[in-house]
Amino acid sequence: MIGNWIDGAERVAVLTGAGISTDSGIPDYRGPSGVWTLDPELVKAFTYQSFMADASVRAAFWRTYHGHPAWRAQPNTAHRALADLEHSGVAVRVLTQNIDGLQQRAGSSPRKVIELHGTMHQVICTGCGRRTPSEQTLTRVEAGDSDPRCIDCGAILKLDVVLFGEHLNPATTGLAERIAANAQLMLAVGTSLQVEPVASLCAVAVNAGHRLVIVNRDPTPYDDLATAVIREPIGVVLPQICAALSTSDQALK
């Protein structure tokens, strides 16, 4: 399962998606029990144009996140394996599509975790740009405010995450592309690789002459570019991969 694709990999980029956090009790989006699989209408709540135009959509969004299991979730073995890999001395950067912050809580250095789609732990005002801890807004939602507004300017509030139809931060994506282009090994873990432009980071790595290994339950559009595709459970196989990379790196020193 773990082949010679780990050999000489001193710089590792890890692109993580919702699948890495399901063992922490956070449902993914497109799986059999995914958020959008069970309630397709919720896709509207994650679409910027609909969110901004319709108070009922915003109310559905805040209902979804009020009491969401992500607030109570703890890092799992896969998160901890990536943190341990960093601490072993391997130059690893995590490019995450997740907004849950579990990778940092597992012990990864915040500066080495690139949150491509933002964070659920902050709320941003769509008018004045003021950022506040999410707890403040969620307390208002719990008290009955279904469409919370900024207390400074009265504009719409939203989680500080990238919704469908929003542009990613160009500085963030530019940094992620540089990391992908310079990593000797790109691991894509628990991501369907269906959301662009983040998924194309895999192509950036391959076009730069580097190895791509995909660890995911289901097929992805980038499987044909991969050096290896692994279908084993993430919580089992990722710690094995990280341990092998750590051992290989120590052998090089």
From TrEMBL:
Q: Which UniProt keywords apply?
A: Metal-binding, NAD, Transferase, Zinc
Q: Name one GO molecular function term.
A: metal ion binding
Query: Which residues hold Zn(2+)?
Result: C125, C128, C150, C153
Q: Could you tell me which CDD domains the record lists for this protein? A: SIR2-fam
Outline the extent of the Deacetylase sirtuin-type domain: 1-253
Q: List all membrane-crossing ranges.
A: none
Q: Where is the active site?
A: H117
**Pfam families attached here?**
SIR2 (PF02146)
As recorded in UniProt, its EC number(s) are 2.3.1.286
- How would you classify this enzyme at the top EC level? transferase
State the name under which the record lists this protein.
protein acetyllysine N-acetyltransferase
Q: Species name for this entry?
A: Actinoplanes awajinensis subsp. mycoplanecinus
